[in-house]
Amino acid sequence: MSESIEAPRGLGILAGGGHLPLQVAQAARASGRPVFVVGLEGFVDKAWLGDWPHEIIRMGAAGRIKAALEAHGCQDLVLIGPVRRPSFFDMRPDAFAARILARVGKAAFTGDDGLLAGIVKVLGEEGFRVMGAQEILKEALGPRGILTQTRPDAAAMADIARGVIVARALGSVDVGQGCVVQQGVVLAVEALEGTDAMLARCGPLALPAHGGVLVKLVKPGQDRRIDLPAIGPRTVAAAAAARLRGIAFEAAGAILVDRDLTIAAADKAGLFLLGLGPDEIDQGS
């Protein structure tokens, strides 16, 4: 008797902004998975969607999102790409979305991760398996150690240690994942605006002499299936425009978008990329 081969599980991608949703879709298709994309209206980059089965649906239309995923045989889900959390009134929840918010309860109002974790829980109860993007993009997570030709000196390492303390404190209250530190001074912290907007604020605030560093960490206790820190060529370009010296991130916790391009961009700009191990993060915090 021949051994039966299990069909690949259908993957639904709830796509916010940026390039990562496309990378997840390409990797999933290359592995033989059927892929369907729900582009979140107002956030997804529509330019790449034409080559993929998809629908563009607003966040509040959760019933329509669920029906589309089920109609296309999606069993697994990945939530990927930056999305600005809307207010309850901007969201205009349909009946199913209202039920989700009721089931999520107060977590919907305790920060981005509280809301996302609640949504993941509800999706699981609805029969979907929620996966992390790193489970599809096997090589996505940044490794430990220095990745670039430029290396941080003692002053940069001191700023990184200070940044770890600040980023951990921010993450512990579900505010943000990153900060910029220069000569021990915190120039900016990340909140709702995201990393690129935070970096744009840093240029006029930079102190003379050596530039600052960007530190990006996973929030303490964060569900690693959702909203991991991401660093890509755009991050490097924004860091260079802000006259930073480099970027430190949590190894095996931050996603490197287009890793080779990101490293090449950092080398060209003369910035360092440094993956921090658990001992370095714990020591800093």
Keywords:
alpha/beta; Cytidine Deaminase, domain 2; 5-stranded parallel β-sheet; 285 residues; single chain; 11 helices; Rossmann fold; 6-stranded mixed β-sheet; globular
Commentary on this structure:
- The protein has 285 residues and is α/β, with parallel strands linked by helices.
- It has 2 domains: 10-136, Rossmann fold (3-Layer(aba) Sandwich); 145-284, LpxI C-terminal catalytic domain (Cytidine Deaminase, domain 2).
- It has helices at 20-30, 62-71, 88-91, 95-104, 112-125, 133-136, 154-172, 195-202, 233-241, 259-269, 278-284, and strands at residues 10-15, 35-40, 54-57, 74-80, 129-131, 145-146, 178-182, 185-189, 213-216, 230-231, 246-250, 255-256, 272-276.
- The strands form 3 sheets. The protein has a 6-stranded mixed β-sheet with strand order 6-13-11-9-7-8.
- Helix 9 (233-241) packs parallel to helix 10 (259-269).
- The longest helix is centred in the middle third of the chain and has 19 residues, at 154-172.
Q: What proportion strand?
A: 15-25%
Strand arrangement, major sheet: 6-13-11-9-7-8
The first-level CATH class name of the largest domain: Alpha Beta
The average pLDDT is 88
Total of DSSP H or I helical runs spanning 4+ residues: 11
Distance between the termini: 59 Å
Largest sheet: 6 strands, mixed
> Which word captures the global form?
globular
Low-confidence stretches: none
Fraction of residues in helix: 25-40%
CATH topology of the largest domain: Cytidine Deaminase, domain 2
CATH A-level architecture of the largest domain: 3-Layer(aba) Sandwich
User: What structural class is derived from the secondary structure elements?
Assistant: alpha/beta
Q: What is the alpha-carbon Rg in Å?
A: 20 Å
What is the string of helix and strand elements? EHEEHEHHHEHEHEEHEEHEEHEH
Domain count: 2
Question: How many DSSP-defined strands?
Answer: 13
The CATH superfamily name of the largest domain is LpxI C-terminal catalytic domain
